[in-house]
Specification:
By secondary structure, the protein is an alpha+beta fold. About 45% of the residues lie in helices and about 15% in strands. It has a domain of about 35 residues. Helix 1 packs across helix 2.
Length: about 475
Amino acid sequence: MTDSIILERVADAAADCFYGELLRTEDLGAFEQIVAADTRLMASMVLRKCLERFDSDLRDNMPPKWSVHESAQRTLVTLVGVVTFERTIFLDEFGRRRAWADELLGIPSRARLSACAFLWIASHAAELSYRKTAAEFIALTSASISHVTVMNVVHREGALLRESGGEFARDGMRVSQDVLFVESDGLWVHLQEHEHRDEALPRFLYEQARKTKSFELKIAALYAGKAKVAPGRYERGGLCLTCLDGDADAFWERAWEMLVENYEEADVDRIAVGGDGAEWCGPERVGARAAAGCAVDYTLDFFHIMEKVTRAFPDEGSPKREWAVNLAVRGKGKQLARMCERIAAKMKAGSARGKVSDLATYAANHAGGIRPPRRELGTMEGTNSHVGAARLKGQGRSWSRAGAEAMCLIRCAIMTGRALVAPPARAWFTERELAAEAASLPKFASQVPETSGKGKEYPYRSKPLSKNVTIPLSYRG
């Protein structure tokens, strides 16, 4: 409702009701709490009365051959609180129970949360812990939910995004682009252990003693380029994000599906691939799926090169470090590898020599990808940090595989401005009820009744109904 005149009248009527409380309390803080609680209760009552009025209109205008079976209560947890309302259960012409109001309003059967409450919980759980999300929802609506409910919502939303591709869907609008940029990286997440400690320990000792296992969550970013939005600040255009807990082939199939969904594949002449040198995110994966005539070039993420350089030469300002940085910036991977090999040969055995040798091996293995830094690439580490690590890592967090992937998919959708997917309504009829409807339909032309033009004529059955067909109440007795 957006009519300001009607809203003003409603506000005047509510002010007449609440003004006496203000005169009685003469305290703005106490009066504010009263208005907040009563307004939320009033909103839930308005929602209940509207739903029941809608059901009453349906009862007055039910189709022919339908009958009223019973009235049943339905309870939903909504953004305005717990709403319990009465709705009519009908029996249609085939004897099936029909909660017609639920069907028309899109309320899933046996659902406890409304669609808006479901999406609110999923979006807030992407930033807060499950317990904090439950506490925030209780403070907002006064409806009690547990952190387990929040976890189930996250798992359900992740499954919906995975099935519908909602985290990278663009409603059929594809971008025509000559050059595309594809970056990928892995995020190592602690895996939950089913075995718990036998006795209570201080937090520090527990963190030191527990057995930790990790798994790699693969994340991909696809974008059309960068636009300058502020001095020293750039924004990626047409950004698409996705993730997967699975093998490399399944991951790249999903990433390529994201590319086809959002971009005109035939218009792409070149794909610039960025990565950290891992085998699963190399240019061969993209080149095997690119169209003929589409060039694929690979650039090693400069972040990882500088990470290896600073580990090998920790002294800032040392000639060796400046020399290594200069070679890396100029894209001289082979020269950098030879320099490190000569330096390592003159060093004593130890951890310092091992780090220099590690840099030499890394530069030699990825010499073709070591190129001068480009403004277009090199964003994956920041993306990985903001999308995945900010929610999945730190503070002793551990996840199940399904939970980590679901959370990352939700954050991918939110970061790219995609809408989360509400749970769809389930099938209203069972297979037995559908079979009853099919059994009542005519199978031959001679069984189709003649019509007089006054409306729909239901088929006449010359044979008695089978046991699978329920006779409506209006025909009983």
